[in-house]
Amino acid sequence: MKNLTKAELFKLKKSTAYRTLFIIFLLTEIIVQINNIGNSVAYPKYNPTYTGIGWLSELHRPFSIYAITLFLFAAFFVNGDFTGRTFYASLLCGTERKNAFGAKMISVFAGGVPLALVSLLPGTILWSIHTGFGMDFGIKAAFLIIKAFVWQILISFAIISHTVFFAVIAKSKTSTFVWSFGSLYVVGVLRANIGRIIPNPALGEILKFLVSLYYLNIWTFLASVLLKLLAAGYIFEKFDLK
Fold first, then answer.
1. Which residues contact 88 (CB under 8 A, 6 or more apart)?
2. Mean of the pLDDT values across residues 91-96?
3. How far is CA 192 from the centre of its chain?
4. Whole-number Å distance between alpha carbons of 123 and 128
5. Which of 84, 114, 127, 134 is 20 to 30 A from 170, comparing alpha carbons?
6. How many Å apart are CA 1 and CA 9, to the nearest integer?
7. Is 235 exposed, middle or buried (0-12, 13-18, 19+ CB in 10 A)?
8. SS3 category, 185
9. Nearest to residue 176, comparing CAs of 47, 39, 20, 71?
């Protein structure tokens, strides 16, 4: 397991595709935040202005750029071993399935951490330059910074676990991306419009509660990540990898 994990982390470190995705995401975030700052100056009535800590503490970031980046990374990094038959070849060499899956999960989550930080740092730095950080550095500021980074990394893990679940089912990069993004998009639309879709108020409230379980608190959030990984691990161990 230890050697497998080292090999997977080395593969991630040397991955040209991952470095390219990282740079594209970083440049995109910088461009988006510069545009947001420009709009806040030109059209302050319609665009919010943040301080650095205000942006850092904002959990409702644009879903598309960050999520699509993670979907692409997880889908291609995990499914590359299916399409390239790397998983199958390693099992023929005597590697246990649970070890192969565990090493891949460690590496894919490790790859999600830098992407999570990219979603925070450009905005925080650029808004701090534009309007100031918004508070003195101290214990409170340090707590807010740590909290923001922890939450963003957890969100990264949640999106990755969602993609991994579909990866072991689809075993296809394109299908994994489409299923992962599409399913969360449908749930998001349903959650926002459930009152109009379901005319019965009581039934609507029940369904709204069910689709909102993921967002209720840290424990339901972490439980959803764990359940998806357990389900993905079971499918990986029990079903054909070809």
1. 241, 242
2. 58
3. 21
4. 8
5. 114
6. 12
7. middle
8. helix
9. 71
Report pTM: 0.83
Q: How far is CA 65 from the centre of its chain?
A: 10
**Side chain identity at residue 233, one-letter code:** G
Provide the b/e sequence for 118-133 (b: ≥16 CB within 10 Å). Answer: bbbebbbbbbbebbeb
> Which amino acid is located at 239 in the chain?
F
Q: Residues 47-69: pLDDT tens digits?
A: 888 888 988 887 655 557 888 99
* Tokens encoding 203: 């039934």
For 72-198, list the strands marked E by DSSP. none
Query: How far is the C-alpha of 118 from the C-alpha of 152, rounded, in Å?
Result: 10
> Which residue reads 């497998």 in tokens?
4
- Closest listed residue to residue 12, CA positions, set 150, 114, 118, 156: 114
